[in-house]
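Morning F.,

Quick status update on the modeling queue. The single chain you submitted on Monday has been processed. Sequence for confirmation:
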Amino acid sequence: MSSREGKSLKQTQGEETRATLIYTGARLFAQNGYNGVSMRTLAAEAGVNLATVSYHFGGKAGLYEAIIREIFKVRDQIYPPTPTVEARLAEAGDSPEEKAAVADWFMDTLINGLLTRTEYAWGTVIISRELVHPSELYPKMEELFFRPNLESLCTLVRGTAAHCLSKADMAITAHAVISIVIKLLEGHDLLCRVIGWDSFENHLETVSQIIKTRIRGLLGLPMENAQ
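Structure tokens below.
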């Protein structure tokens, strides 16, 4: 094996270890909170030694920050950016049905990002925890994640909900929209037991239809024919 090939293999193994630590860390931080996770637990769950965590991230704080950066990277895959929402609303014009279709599209994007892409699930719980128990990274998260997402949601509400006239009304309604989806994710196990499902996985069309219909109602849009 050439030194170049050996270096490539080492780099690949390092990337795999880093990815494993990020996924394991996201799961543990989501389940237990930042202060509830020790370096020893991180290493054991990831199947590495303590030195490996320090080598890749400098410690627990560095790993947590890396996880937050990964969440930032996928933001626009989960939350439609404000310019895209504005363009969709401009195309919809004054038609209530077309506006309802924009709301459906927005919710489809959220649902696909938060309920069907399981690799994002732990990150979503971490985000929820940050709102309740902010870490030292919260100011950066507010600037790069929370505010842009809320702006996008406010744009949707402003363009579809004629009854939302004040800034407070729009902001609270926008927050309610995302809260519905996040709480659905957090309550997955309980809801499935109550309904009699094994998981949402085989019932996503039903889940999506219910959410979109209710969001239409929240926004004051026609509730029929949610797609």
